[in-house]
Amino acid sequence: MRQFKVLGMPVHIHENYRDWLAQRLRDNQGAHVVTLNAEMTMQARKNPALAKVIQEAELVVPDGSGIVLYLRSQGKKIERCPGIELSEQIVQIAAEQKWRIFLIGGAPNVVDHVADIWQQKWVDIAIAGLHHGYFDEAIEKQICEDIRSTQPQLVLVGLGVPRQELWIQKNRYLNPNAVWIGVGGSFDIWSG
Ligand code: UDP
After folding, report:
1. Cα–ligand 1 centroid distance for 30 (angstroms)
2. Residues in contact with 147: Cβ distance below 8 Å, sequence separation at least 6, in sequence order
């Protein structure tokens, strides 16, 4: 995929990120999706581990308007892709295809609420598992075991930047064929 660079970070360019990801899932190919904004790019300059994860992600979408404005100022044709909207579109496709979805992050009860809302919206949605984002090592082990045993095709991780990106990098081997998306505070918004 074509890519531009913002302060050393890649931004991938595609006319339809949703279709690209859906095809990726159909082909049983995994992806780590990073939804890049200016703050993250600044963090990555000081955090080599974060920079590496972003550089290695299969899909980095221009989430922040600062990224889009910067690239436009360089003469690039680029449209913003809000990560929360892309994630929701993928959830819808996953629900329709009955692909298993795993949700991690947010304060206690938030993801449960999101799962309830989605189950009402898409009755056939397959929520393979969920956990809030405040866990100790023992619980983390259990979460990882649940991911390993349920093999979800879509994993949404909302632990904030950079924790979610590093967490995905560390754990995506549990199901390399899944699409893993760092969703930031999206669970808070989806829960209403
Ligand atoms: N969060 C979490 N565990 C933590 C720290 C944060 O689950 O140890 C969640 C928090 O509840 C919130 C999200 O991570 O839902 C971070 O949201 P924010 O909008 O600050 O994230 P950003 O997208 O700006 O990184």
Report:
1. 24
2. 102, 129, 155, 171, 174, 175
Q: Cα separation of 133 and 40, whole Å?
A: 20
Which ligand 1 atom is the nearest neighbour of the CA of 104? Answer: 7
The CA-based angle 146-87-187, given to 5 degrees, is 65
Q: In this structure, is the dihedral angle defined by the CA atoms of residues 92, 175, 140 and 41, taken in order, positive or negative?
A: negative
Interval between CA 73 and ligand 1 midpoint (Å): 31
Whose Cα sits closest to atom 1 in ligand 1? 159
Per-residue model confidence as pLDDT tens for the chain (192 residues): 899 999 999 999 999 999 999 999 999 999 999 999 999 999 999 999 999 999 999 999 999 999 999 999 999 999 999 999 999 999 999 999 999 999 999 999 999 999 999 999 999 999 999 999 999 999 999 999 999 999 999 999 999 999 999 999 999 999 999 999 999 999 999 999
List the domain boundaries for the chain. 2-190
Alpha carbon of 27 to ligand 1 centroid (Å): 31
Which residues lie with the beta carbon below 6 Å from any ligand 1 atom?
105-107, 133-134, 158-161, 184-185, 187-188
Q: Whose CA is nearest to atom 17 of ligand 1?
A: 185
Choosing among 3.40.50, 2.40.128, 3.30.70, 3.30.1760, the CATH entry for 2-190 is 3.40.50
